[in-house]
Design brief:
The strands form two sheets. Strands 1, 2, 3, 4, 5, 6 and 7 form a seven-stranded mixed sheet that branches. The chain has a two-stranded antiparallel ribbon with strand order 8-9. The protein is elongated. The chain is an alpha+beta fold.
């Protein structure tokens, strides 16, 4: 339905009152060799179930600053996070019965050790991707989750974004396992290792993993912070 022409520039008209901006975050980690996300439990007068961590955007602050504040207040996490703006969800003005909300969304990657050392489990739960599908999720957070998951999978094809979810040092078999967990399929070992070495994005350390009977060389990414564009898969 079109807004009546006479009201298009009337800032006090009911149709043009300013919507509320929210910031919603999909936080991924690999926990116990499964792709997991963080959810918050909602138990309020009008809502009972789960949602992604989110909050109303605070004015006079950048989106990045809002992200950091929401992350800290809703999860307890303050550092060691890769974040990327995802999409603006605005097609469902009735997502919240209290007001018209437009959702500015991010997805984030956190290494398991960083998450576990910071997260406040009185605020959030960690669930697998499969468990998330079975929860009663509010707003359009299920749609946001699927959009974020697709973005993450796509990123594996042309960037080294996986470094943001791996330990600082890892076996070559671990990096392949991370790809397989996120993509949801098995990769050929020989082809994967040939490709990862040809890209020269990882380097051998002088250490070995002795946590199992089969010792193995440990590797780390050459570029630790800046995202590098590659032809991975």
């Amino acid at each position: 339905m079109l807004i009546p022409q006479s009201e298009q520039f009337d800032i006090w008209s009911k149709e043009l009152t300013i919507p509320v901006l929210a910031l919603d975050i999909v936080i991924f980690t690999i926990y116990k060799w499964e792709l997991c996300i963080l959810v918050t439990k909602r138990n309020e007068e009008w809502i009972h179930g789960y949602s992604l961590p989110w909050s109303i955007v605070a004015k006079w602050y950048s989106l990045s600053e809002n992200f950091d504040e929401v992350l800290k207040r809703k999860t307890g996490i303050t550092h060691g996070v890769y974040k990327e703006q995802l999409y603006t969800f605005w097609e469902n003005p009735a997502r919240d019965p209290r007001w018209h909300v437009i959702a500015l969304t991010y997805y984030a990657l956190v290494k398991a050790e960083n998450l576990l050392s910071q997260v406040d489990f009185t605020l959030v739960d960690i669930v697998t991707v499969q468990q998330f599908e079975e929860l009663h999720i509010f707003y359009e957070h299920n749609e946001i989750f699927h959009y974020a998951l697709k973005r993450l999978k796509d990123k594996l094809w042309y960037t080294d974004v996986v470094k943001n979810i791996l330990p600082e040092e890892f076996r070559i078999s671990q990096i392949q396992k991370m790809y397989e967990i996120i993509l949801g399929r098995i990769l050929d070992k020989r082809n994967f290792q040939k490709k990862i070495f040809s890209l020269r994005i990882i380097q051998e350390t002088s250490k070995k993993d002795t946590s199992t009977n089969r010792q193995a060389k440990l590797y780390r990414f050459v570029e630790k912070k800046q995202l590098k564009f590659i032809e991975m898969l």
